[in-house]
Amino acid sequence: MQNIPFTERLQKTLFTCLLPLLLCSGMSVCWVASAESPGAGTSSLPLDPSWRTFARPLALGNQEMLFFQREGDQAVLWRVKWLGGGSIATPLPELKLGDKERYTAISTAAGLWLVGKRTMLIRPNGQRLQLTTFETGYDEPIASALDDGSVAVFGMSQGGTGGGIDQLRINPVSGQIERVARGLLSYDGRPNQSGQTYRQPAYGHNVTWLLDGRLLLLGGDRTPQLASIIAPKSEAGNWVPQPVAGMPHPRVGSAVITLTDGRVVVTGPERLRCYGDPAQVRSVDIYDPVRNSWASLPPLPFAPCSDAYGADRPALAVTPDGTLVVGGHLEAHVMLLRPDKNSASGFASDWLVFGDFDQPRIGGVVQAVSSKEVAVAGGVSNREGRFGSCCYAVASFDRVAIDDKEGRQSRALTYAGVGVARRGNLIFAAAGRRFDTTSTGQLRYSAYAELIDLRTGRIRQLPNMPFVSGAAAAVWLDDDQVLVKGTGASNDRGFSPNENLSSHVPPSSAALAVFNVKRNAWVDMATLESVSNSKLLAGVANDAYFLDAVGSLQRLNLKTRQADTVARPALERSGATGRLVAVNQLVVVGGQTPGERISEIDAQCAADPLADCPDRYVGFGQLAPTTDYESLSFGAQADPTKNLLSQSATRQAQVQAVATAIRRDARVTMVISDAEFTAQRLVRSVSGSRLWQSMPAPNGAKLCKGDCALLLATDPRDENKELLFFRQGGIDSVYSDSTLASVEVNVWLWTESTGDLGQWQLVLKTDGKSARAVPKALNLPVVNGARLMSMGWHLDMPIVWAAP
Length: 804
Prior knowledge:
mainly beta, Neuraminidase, six-stranded antiparallel β-sheet, 4 helices
């Protein structure tokens, strides 16, 4: 249960009640230490960071949070104060903890309730009450505070072990805790009929307290879209849930919160899954109890999935200015939706993202410290980053500043498959994917977009993309517009043969959208079947160019949305690499072609004795890797002298290109390898010729086994030139993003020497995580007071620029 913002009366009562208790009144041990200042990053409580917990942290208003430590069978209560800092530890010797026992902490006007196997109430005066006649037997149940200081409990456990609706209260005569049965845990108060399971949730339900004192019960396994309102009463008898309008999206393991205007917000993918329909897993719904109606808020840029052992749901909070905050999921950040009085929903149209924790807080708690800061605490994480080691409690918290829309650290560039386009000093970046392991492999996609200004270093968050894709390509159409195309996963293992994720692969959209920088808005073009399986290469004004599945060049008119083929290679090439090196010249390299080919005569062309007829071939036989390339000139300004089909770079069979770069002058560089990756060569094409020449390998470079790349970048010192790099270190598609920091990345720059020879120079040594998004200086001489900076080494074209 996510506590709602209490009324002013209850807030004052609660804090006044609990303050003496938590200042060690009557306690034998008290330990104090300072808390970190706002925005300082992760802070551990003053104990070993591997300590275990027996309940989720509990936010008290905006300035305090309670943590619950398990020390063997001993329970310890920690109180952390954000204002002024300080942490206080209070042992609870009366609460003996069994192995793996979990409790739910609830604050009410009566005090602090710890609802579990041996339920305890800590009164405002420090008195501790327990049920002594029998054990309540709960295991971290879903529970809610009530107006009279009592607690309503819904089922024995959030994990689904049966039970009904109970009320825990203080008996007015004996002054002791008593448990009162209040009926079935059912959405209409009746049991399931024989063979039917549509009334009673098995697990994953949730509840929130409405401003008028009633309770809203919603979701759960077997009842994922049901909702009912319960009116608690002190008199004897059952509390009969009254069904209300069903939710727009199924919720099993949801986060829920009540706003100060009485409406209720709920989010969280069904059963905490990261995969599934993107519209569902990223959805946020809002309920109006007065109108008994649901509506949807803008979808989240990231799915708030929490699929990990020990995690039950993400978390919601509301800041004093009305900003909605989502956190406590697999991503190490929070997502914010600002209020907007001019919108029908009362909220803005797009979410913002803040924070970059050292580790995620899966199933953690979010607390609004102020309108400019939130705290994210507790949860679990997979510290080892591999299977079989999940999950462990995170005994710490992060404080995140949320008052600045622009940042200095790129978030989009941290993702594999991010679509990036450059125009001068402006970098557009959007989409991408991340993979980590919790209890199982978790692949997640991004709808986040940003604009990076290399001159100022400022990073502007853009409206979220209208679709979700695990990989994307982007091109500038003009100074104001960027075209983005998503990519579908290539197979059920991910986006490349090297990934082999052993994970559910979510649907990845191959849609198109155009972002207008001046209007700060998207135009959704949806999925066009004619180019859905093609690669976006370039864009000019209203035309976009794509390389299709067999190596042909397509031109798409963005106004009419009609595509035509403008150039075809001599042989169909499956999986080829291509580049539009000029407005009328395409170069396609490698891929797979038919193993046998014969020359075909174009009779019409051959009849003209002055015609320069291009080579045409017909392929047959099985597909096999090829190491040749083809240059094609096309259109009204076609230049027949640019048409060229090269020789293969090797005469050996089953040799493939494992890295390829196509320069702007149509020169091709490749790393070619045998099928076993035991013998490799670095070659490049001879300008204006069908021939190849060998190049030296970088000194110290290892054999490429899916972990190297040939990369090109515009030389910021001369825009007419391109820099050729050799990168060692697999950071473009890795098994787990949590292991990136341990990947060693080396980058060499090719420099031409006298004649047609050259050499490689090592210009960068860094780790995989930094290589993606952290600006790094290249080890080159400073020229005219400027040095070359770089980032995005997992991209096809890394970002290189000159800076003082």
